[in-house]
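step: validate -> pass
step: tokenize input -> pass
step: predict -> running
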Amino acid sequence: MKFEAWKQFLKEGSPSATPMTWPGPCWIWTASCGRLCSTVPLPKTFPKGGKSFANGSFRRPKAPPSLCRKPAGFFPLWWTMWWRFESGFAGNASGARPMRCVRCLRPTMSLWRIRPRDRGGAGPPTEDTGMVEVTDRLDSLWGLWESRREGLLRWDTLFVLPPWIQAWKETLGANETLCILVAHDAAGPSGVLPLVRHGDSAVFAGDPDVCDYFDAVTAPGREEAACRAFLQGFWQQGLESLDLGPLRPQSTLLTHLVPLCHEAGCAVDVSRTDVTVDMALPDSWEAYLSTLSGKQRHEVRRKLRRLEEAGPVSFHTVTEPEKTDEALDRFFRLFQSNREDKARFLTEAMRRYFRALCRGMSRHGMLRLCFLDLNGMPAAAALCFDDGETVYLYNNGYDAAYAHVSVGLVNKILTIKDAVERGRRRYEFLRGDETYKLRLGGQDVPLYRVRIMGRAGATHRHPARNGES
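step: predict -> pass
step: emit ->
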């Protein structure tokens, strides 16, 4: 875009637009749309005597990375001026309105935070004066996730990854309204909290029936700053209550947001709801077997030997997107064949969700559909996900005709062996306290539900104060 086109963009606006008025110079932080868009060549300087800027020059201090992976800008604004956008909006002192991406000019639901400079000359936001964007689109989340290799944020919760949320939103959550909070400070994005809004309350984006636990995505070492920004976002959005969970004990929201809510005088209730089961993985299969009790080690070896004696055994995985649909048809048949509750669970809507989820995860190399064949016939299947460090056993099924050789359990054992041999560091059996998980080395991890009310009055509870662990 040439300089003249950029000036025209700033000048055009709705006839109903009104000017913004501040008591002095201000800073406007220009958020971006979250897309991988091309660079707009902005001018280094404006003509001297320009009406829009305090000293007639374009200043671009160091700014946080924008969501479209292009530098965002800081612009000094003078006392009273017209700042119009193609959307017909002229900003005002309330400080938060939808705009367009400063780099690609595409419409965005991102919020532009506007705040007056104080007499001390405060400029762009600092670590202590973070800001939060609120959007109902997944673009910003995708933009941050696609830059995850840069290490800006820690994406260690499977169920809040963009492909997972998108699969849920396209199927089971089609009628829900997203409310995604993106926190920023002077160092860049500090956290993301994907929610859905129900009137004046909000819950996590996702369904606890298909998502085992949740958490915010945060930058390492900046969790408290992110949670302060989230809390600010709750108030700005007029949310009266939050129902967050399930959460692991070391989740950012439980360790950082809950104490901040106590400080702010909010009513907070924390209750234990369920357990998830996981375990650390050693460097070799033999080392894993040595972590089991003598009895369980013997049982694992005996079951593997019995299966091999029953006929030719084949363990294989499907990871490719083009093979996903066919593999899921086989998985569905095994999943619903041996239990009536699983057959009832697998509705047509749930099938669409599983297909959307597996397609999305396979495109990012995170799907592992593991099959165990006996005598050339499908005997058991396990739906797993792999984030490069942890393998998650999400669901499984088996043919009851082969129950006498424990094909369902053996298939799970082989997914553990596969994870160890591929160098993964953790294995998660996920939610539920089934006995086999503990026998195979898993450890219970409690899950909590956090309810936050915007005004004090309810009894404050915390697991440590109620004898829970």
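step: describe -> The first helix runs from residue 3 to 11.
step: cleanup -> pass
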